[in-house]
Amino acid sequence: MSQRVALVTGGTGGIGTAICKKLADMGHKVATNYRNKEKADAWQARMKADGYDITLVPGDVGTPESAEQLVREVESKLGPIDILINNAGITRDTTFHKMSPQQWNDVINTNLNSVFNVTRPVIEGMRERKWGRVIQISSINGLKGQYGQANYAAAKAGMHGFTISLARENAKLGITVNTVSPGYVATDMVMAVPEEVRAKIAADIPTGRLGRPEEIAYAVGFLVDDQAAWITGSNLDINGGHHMGW
Q1: For 194-219, what is each residue's pLDDT tens digit?
Q2: Which one of the listed residues 52, 152, 184, 218 is annotated catalytic?
Q3: What is the second-level CATH architecture of the domain 5-185+214-237?
Q4: Which of 109, 17, 10, 1 is nearest to 63 (CA)?
Q5: What residue spans define the domains of the chain?
Q6: Quick check: is 152 catalytic?
Q7: pTM given for the model
Q8: Burial code of 26-44, b = ≥16 C-beta within 10 A, e = fewer?
Q9: What is the pLDDT of residue 203?
Q10: pLDDT at 16
């Protein structure tokens, strides 16, 4: 596969880090965004210690102007973006009857509006070059719902609606658009949950364990490969059998 430029939003998180490493291992030039410079610098130092040179660019993907500036800066540093992984996401959990407009809007803006904000300035270049890979990192909870996550589930379900529409619009131009929906993965956020709670979650998963970030990254690597050119508009569930459907 040719070396290409990949932008991974939210790349400093657990799954995002694994995706950045996987794409770099495939020979691509990889960039991600940050909002907190101190944390980003510490993350970049850890990546360099592991042998990875990931480009860091400031940018708030929840703001159209900042997202476009992020894209243009990545392009100026590395070249045209041919691989986009929309991975940025947050949670603001509470039951819906207690949910504030701020909790709703924060999650919708960061998890769903960001997909428009970042993809919009990227897609034209992909169309001109007639090659591109766009992948949304959704969630098992966008498929089955979750108590206290009406905002998160709505945003994650919306990501796949975006996927299937964009896939139809760009299929003839060599651009594939797909969704990956992870189940419960052993990221720092999940591992911070009390052990007894994690044990109950794992007991509900047919494989008997949480997923690993690298297993999600493997799926992303598969979908961005040249040989995955006939896979578009798909959702790949990776959840150890926790949620199964047609």
Answers
A1: 899 889 999 999 999 999 999 999 99
A2: 152
A3: 3-Layer(aba) Sandwich (3.40)
A4: 109
A5: 5-185+214-237
A6: yes
A7: 0.96
A8: bebbbbbbbeeeeebeebb
A9: 94
A10: 97
